[in-house]
Amino acid sequence: MRFLEKVRGSGQRKNLRSAVLAFACLAVASGAALAAGATVTGKVVATPAKYLEETVVYLKGEVGSHAPATASMDQKGMKFIPHVLAVTKGDTVQFLNHDGVAHNVYSPDNEGYNLGSFKPEESRSYAFKSAGVYTQLCSVHPEMLGFIFVGENPYSAAVDHEGRFTLKDVPPGTYTIAVWNSHLKAAEKTVTVTAGATAEVSFTLQR
Fold first, then answer.
1. For labeling, which of 38, 85, 97, 114 is most exposed (least CB within 10 Å)?
2. Pair 158, 38: CB distance under 8 Å
């Protein structure tokens, strides 16, 4: 009887050791996966500066993989918020209305769409099938203007009010990095990133 208890106890200890070892291996693998991603950061300077807010920095080409996600663009104070939204091909954007009046959202760009008129607190959604830039307009309020940048990959970002940007979890490699702006241009650059490291790239936008 004692022999059977010893055998059973030995088996339990072995199972426990196996479970601990498997958990440790999983933790190491997860840490390695997280460390593999690189970061690209930098700053954009625009002349004239008034166009800086209409800027997106992005990697060109098919890079990595992306599971479709949902982002949102609001209408408040008779403005599209954010003014520029960066998403990825296949993503859905939910258009909200937190104004006190009805709005209409449409875009004449690429395949084009018109989501009709919707009242305060209502929303409409659109799934973007093609990469490109979509001007956001409201037929009820022609002074309203916004932009949705749809990238080929998930590595794109609108700059902040100081012109700074960050692209996270970029797979190690060499890429062409470019800038989209509603009025200005900048030459493309090449950036090489290594696992767990940060690369810095700066741009100057001009007419």
1. 114
2. no
Cα gap 136→134, rounded to integer Å: 6
CATH superfamily of 37-65+156-207: Carboxypeptidase-like, regulatory domain (2.60.40.1120)
Rounded Cα–Cα distance for residues 92 and 66 (Å)? 13
- For the domain spanning 67-152, the CATH number is 2.60.40.420
Q: Where are the domains of the chain?
A: 1-36, 37-65+156-207, 67-152
Tokens of 28: 């190491």
Residue 62 identity (one-letter amino acid) = E
Task: Identify the CA nearest to 116 among candidates 181, 108, 124.
Answer: 124
Residue 4 has pLDDT above 70, yes or no: no
The CA-based angle 171-67-113, given to 5 degrees, is 120
